[in-house]
Specification:
The complex is a heterotrimer. By secondary structure, chain A is an alpha+beta fold. Chain A has a domain of 269 residues: 4-Layer Sandwich (Glutamine Phosphoribosylpyrophosphate, subunit 1, domain 1). In chain A, 30% of the residues lie in helices and 27% in strands. Chain A contains 13 helices and 18 strands. Chain A has a seven-stranded antiparallel beta sheet. A five-stranded antiparallel beta sheet of chain A has the order 11-12-13-14-18, with helices on one face. In chain A, a hairpin with a 2-residue loop joins β13 and β14. The longest helix of chain A is centred in the middle third of the chain and has 15 residues. Chain A is globular, with a radius of gyration of 20 Å. Chain A starts with 14 loop residues before the first strand and ends in an 11-residue tail after the last helix. Chain B is α+β, with helices and mostly antiparallel strands. Chain B has two domains: 89 residues, 2-Layer Sandwich (Alpha-Beta Plaits), CATH 3.30.70.20; 56 residues, 2-Layer Sandwich (Alpha-Beta Plaits). In chain B, 25% of the residues lie in helices and 21% in strands. By secondary structure, chain C is an alpha/beta fold. Chain C has two domains: 87 residues, 2-Layer Sandwich (Alpha-Beta Plaits), CATH 3.30.70; 334 residues, Alpha-Beta Barrel (TIM Barrel), CATH 3.20.20.70. In chain C, the strands form eight sheets. In chain C, strands 11-21-20-18-17-14-13-12 form an eight-stranded parallel beta sheet. In chain C, strands 6-22-23 form a three-stranded mixed beta sheet, covered by helices on one side. The relative contact order of chain C is 0.15. The chains are: A alpha+beta, B alpha+beta, C alpha/beta.
Chain lengths: 392, 151, 504
């Protein structure tokens, strides 16, 4: 039995799931109790073989540092990993990730976190690299080269907490009730095959992207090879990983707004494109033609978190459930309505997501929460393709 | 009315139309029996004419003011002025071959055994003329006479 | 005539109880197998002339004829097959090159048959194409790495203009078959069907008959080493231009259309004298290297004002992946790879049966190579060479093809019975002939309808297979090798194909 030990899969992961996400668009922070309450309602959508959370705004004291969460099979794996980190980064703080022993969490890896900044000399030497690129390179190197180490979170002022167990037990274990964040996403997993490895739980995260996902991407084989073309090594064999990298490619590298990225991943049918007004039809036609390899086929509902907000979207025929609601500044998105009503009984508005049309939550004043440069980047990401025609 | 149009460029001289015509007008309606037992009495009402590679099936075109009907002295050939249908009654036919002489298309056949004329009746008893139904290359089709004449 | 050592390959069996001596067989056999003997009122057969085209059996109104393949039963059946022995007899008779036509007919492995497709169960719903959208629309041509948006306006707008694309209703086209090699009605059938289906036919290297210029938007025209019929108007008439470097049936070999097939019409279309042999040199004599190819690609792009994609077709040879990479870097918008089992009107049998590699491996290698170099999006890959059915097509798409060309299957739909005697010019089915007695046997209205039916049927089947995989757009099948598994292949073969074994 492999137990909790690192085990990069060699075949495609298949699982059903529950997802939930809660955001305060005004940037007000709230504790992890709420998201735990939401995901726990959907207990039966997972089977105890994986649960996890992504939380944004939880490290205000280190908001300019990358928070690197790592799971180690053995303490001995720490040394080589930390040597590798030191090659890329300057370390400001490190500690064991706080946890609360629980009778239902039996076997677990060593969980450690680091607050780091990229070595400035690296950026001077490689003029085409951003500090995000350096972090991605470092994460890829640790995850593929070091046998017992796995980075499962690497963004700024955010963190992923995940493991093998029901999501509410994992939330308890990580003491998420003690954190305050403005955006939380969560995942309960129902895998049909699993190694019991904690890294196999969701969310999947790179930089500040976090993805929770319910579904099975039947286009996985080509999505993986498409990403390969752009230097992404999809080693985890999960749809979630592919979705995260696609967002990274389309939004961070190709500078597409979320709506355009979602159009690439869940485009309108050709028969619908024919009936769009000409400019939009041309855009859709071009997106489909160029991003054919990015089209996500098969049933899925996915929630992507990032520093500025979250994006929920479905496959274009909507074969997996997704419900959204607004209450004041709060946006709630979940697999089932009950997961919303449980934590927010009264809502201003509640609706079912439309296939292929993203639900976009965003900080109303990102400059206040994230600072001016980041806010400018977010402004581009959240531009609507057709003003006044936004989905939500 | 609809008549048979021959599309010469697709006629490939297999002459299945002739064979099918004879079978359709045999008493047995069975090809092997017809050719074994009735061969002497069978006359094809369609004839494939040939000149080099060009071949062309010919049968009654149901002309307007059909010359055969005018020429027939016994009243065996009559034309319905309303529909244009040209009918042939073998009981009245005496085998004078006047219709054969005047037919501009060479479509009147001599049924030598019966000593009467034999002409295309569009296989009135069948859904489709046997030559049209059996043509393997679409060289024989049913078409409105006006369209054929204007084509 | 003195007896020849080569034995007849076919026996013509006539059921005397059914034969009515109607003479259809006599009139239909261009090889003069059947003859009518009025004194006995019977039809007899000279079986040694029979090529096994089955035209007589098809048209015999009483079903009296059976054509039986009767390969000679020489004693040695192993290393010295009957065919090998017969070939020696033939060459000892003639001193000539053994000719073959259509694809390789040796019992070589068919790798498509070693690949199996996936379907959804429980974790992923399969899709019913009769009730839900299922998209086969395919665009061929150069794609940029990314779409750029202009963000300064009131709303984001496209800043990327795509290179010219070919829009196909389904990822299947008709492969290059020239006027001259095939008949006017065969060409017309293909063009009509392509237009009706929303896909493309390919002129082949023999120019475009003036009657077919109206079909230009549904045609790819070829520029081959003989440059037959190439004019600015010819290039301008078509949807795309294809430079033909090689052909899967005869890699490294040029073409030879015998003068007997060059009648007045073929002569005008090819711009060569009536009755002269149409010789395509083995190489293009202005392309002795990859940089020369680039010049021709860009000359053609200039000629079509950069409004049409330029395709380059090569035979699948040992280092096909590297060659394809060079072709893409030379500026081609489409690379067509023709595999070892591709068809032809005439090829030396030794070449056809022994040169080149199967399309399955060539395709996998080319797709991998272009991806590893990050240039897969710069050109579309079209696979050809022996596609028999829609499942073959689905497997090719999953291996990485953007589209496929079908040639032999299209000819079979037109009536071809694979007698493999195209080079004799006596095609009884009116397909591979210019004989006016024979070409009239193919009615293009019927031919086009049959081609339309074939591809409509294939499209339905492809949609069903995609639906089973839980895929509703062909771009999610393309290059998606996760939906393929293989049986009966070695680890090495699996690795090259990039797929797992069944059960994995």
């Amino acid at each position: 039995m492999r137990g909790h030990r690192k085990h990069l899969p060699t075949s495609k992961d298949i699982s059903g799931c529950a997802i939930s996400g809660i955001m305060n668009e005004a940037g007000e922070r709230f504790s992890g109790d709420m998201i735990i309450g939401s995901i726990a309602t959907m207990h039966d959508r997972s089977n105890g073989l994986g649960g996890g959370f992504a939380a944004y705004g939880i490290y205000p004291d280190y908001k300019d540092h990358y928070a690197i969460h790592i799971m180690y099979d053995e303490l001995a794996d720490r040394q080589s990993t930390e040597r590798l980190i030191a090659r890329y980064c300057l370390l400001y703080e490190d500690e064991s990730i706080p946890n609360r022993p629980s009778p239902v969490i039996r076997m677990r890896p060593f969980l450690h976190r680091y607050f780091v900044q990229v070595r400035p000399e690296l950026l001077r030497r490689h003029s085409d690299l951003t500090e995000d690129d350096v972090i991605v390179d470092m994460v890829m190197e640790i995850n593929t080269k070091i046998k017992g180490s796995f980075v499962f979170s690497s963004g700024k002022n955010m963190g992923v907490f995940k493991g093998v167990g029901y999501p509410e037990d994992i939330g308890e274990f990580y003491r998420l009730d003690e954190y305050q964040g403005y955006l939380w996403t969560s995942h309960g997993r129902f895998p049909t095959n699993t190694s019991g490895w904690w890294g196999g739980a969701h969310p999947f995260s790179i930089l500040d992207w976090s993805v929770v996902h319910n579904g099975e991407i039947s286009s996985y084989g080509i999505n993986k090879r498409y990403l390969d073309n752009f230097g992404y090594d999809c080693s985890l064999f999960t749809d979630t990983e592919v979705i995260a990298y696609l967002f990274d490619l389309l939004v961070r590298k190709h500078h597409l707004p979320f709506e355009a990225a979602c159009m690439a991943m869940a485009p309108p049918f050709w028969s619908q494109i024919e009936h769009l007004e000409p400019r939009r039809a041309e855009l859709a036609r071009t997106m489909r033609t160029v991003y054919a390899g990015a089209l996500l086929n098969g049933p899925f509902s996915v929630l992507v978190g990032y520093s500025g907000g979250m994006v929920g979207f479905n496959d274009r025929t909507k074969l997996r459930p997704m419900v959204a609601a607004r209450q004041g500044d709060m946006l709630l998105v979940a697999s089932e309505e009950t997961a919303i009503r449980e934590v927010c009984p009264q809502v201003d508005r509640i609706w079912h997501a439309v296939g292929g049309v993203p639900i976009i939550g965003q900080l109303k004043d990102p400059a206040k929460v994230l600072g001016q440069p980041e806010a400018a980047r977010l402004a581009r990401m959240t531009r609507s393709l057709a003003p006044g025609a936004a989905a939500a | 009315m609809k008549i048979i149009q021959a599309i010469a460029q697709y006629c490939m001289n297999c002459r299945l139309c002739e064979i099918n015509c004879m079978v359709a007008h045999s008493s047995s309606r069975d090809i092997i029996t017809a050719f074994r037992a009735e061969r002497e009495r069978l006359t094809s009402r369609v004839t494939v004419e040939q000149s080099g590679p060009r071949t062309f099936p010919v049968q009654c075109r149901f002309c307007q003011d059909a010359p055969c009907a005018v020429a027939c002295m016994t009243g065996a050939i009559t034309q319905d002025p309303a529909t244009g249908w040209v009918a042939h009654d073998p009981d009245k036919c005496v085998g004078c071959w006047m219709c054969v002489m005047v037919c501009p298309n060479g479509a009147m056949a001599r049924d030598v055994g019966g000593h009467v004329t034999s002409k295309c009746d569009l296989c009135a008893a069948l859904d489709q003329p046997a030559c049209v139904a059996g043509c393997p290359n679409g060289a024989l089709v049913l078409a409105e006479r006006d369209e054929v004449e204007n084509a | 005539m003195a007896p020849r050592l080569v034995q007849p390959e076919f026996s013509v069996q006539r059921d005397g109880e059914r034969c009515i001596a109607c003479g259809v067989c006599v009139r239909q056999c261009a090889n003069q197998v059947h003859s009518y003997h009025p004194e006995y009122e019977e039809v007899r057969a000279a079986a040694e002339r029979c090529v096994g085209c089955h035209r007589c059996a098809w048209l015999c109104p009483t079903g009296a004829l059976s054509i039986i393949h009767t390969p000679p039963t020489y004693r040695h059946g192993g290393h010295w097959s009957s065919e090998a022995i017969s070939n020696v007899y033939k060459q000892a008779d003639s001193g000539g090159v053994l000719l073959g036509a259509m694809g390789n007919s040796q019992p070589v492995p068919v790798y498509w048959d070693h690949l199996l497709l996936n379907a959804s169960q429980v974790t992923n719903p399969s899709i019913d194409p009769l009730r839900e959208p299922m998209e086969l629309k395919t665009f061929l041509g150069r794609k940029p790495d990314q779409v750029e948006l202009e963000m300064s306006g009131p709303e984001p707008s496209l800043a990327t203009t795509l290179a010219p694309q070919l829009e196909l209703s389904m990822p299947i086209m008709f492969s290059a078959m020239s006027y001259g090699a095939i008949s006017y009605p065969a060409c017309k059938s293909l063009a009509m069907a392509a237009r009706e289906l929303g896909t493309l036919a390919n002129s082949g290297e023999g120019g475009l008959h003036p009657d077919f210029w109206d079909f230009g938007p549904s045609m790819i025209v070829q520029v081959a080493s003989g440059r037959f019929g190439v004019t600015p108007d010819y290039l301008g008439a078509a949807a795309a231009v294809e430079i033909k470097i090689g052909q899967g049936a005869k890699p490294g070999i040029g073409g030879h259309l015998p003068g007997e097939k060059v009648d007045d019409s073929v002569s005008r279309t090819r711009m060569i004298p009536v009755g002269s042999d149409a010789l395509s040199p083995a190489p293009h004599h202005d392309i002795y290297s990859i940089e020369d190819l680039r010049q021709l690609i860009y000359s053609l792009k200039e000629a079509v004002r950069y409004r049409k994609p330029i395709s380059v077709k090569i035979a699948a040879v040992h280092n096909v992946a590297a060659i394809a990479s060079g072709i893409v870097r030379a500026g081609a918008d489409i690379v067509a790879i023709d595999g070892y089992k591709g068809g032809t009107g005439a090829a030396p049998a030794m070449i056809r049966d022994n040169v080149g590699i199967p399309i399955e491996f060539a395709l996998a290698a080319v797709d991998d190579r272009l991806r590893s170099e990050g240039i897969r999006n710069l050109a579309s890959v079209v696979a050809c060479g022996g596609f028999r059915c829609s499942a073959d097509v689905v497997k090719a798409l999953a291996l990485g093809a953007d589209a496929v060309y079908i040639g032999t299957a299209a000819l079979i739909a037109l009536g071809c019975h694979m007698c493999q005697q195209c080079f004799t010019g006596k095609c009884n089915w009116g397909i591979a002939t210019q004989d006016p007695y024979l070409t009239r046997r193919l009615n293009p209205e019927i031919g086009a309808q049959r081609l339309y039916n074939l591809l409509s049927g294939w499209a339905h089947e492809i949609k069903e297979m995609m639906g089973g995989m839980g895929i509703n757009a062909v771009e999610s099948l393309r290059g998606n090798r996760h939906h393929l598994r293989a049986w009966g292949l070695s680890d090495r073969e699996l690795k090259i194909l990039g797929i797992s074994a069944v059960g994995e």
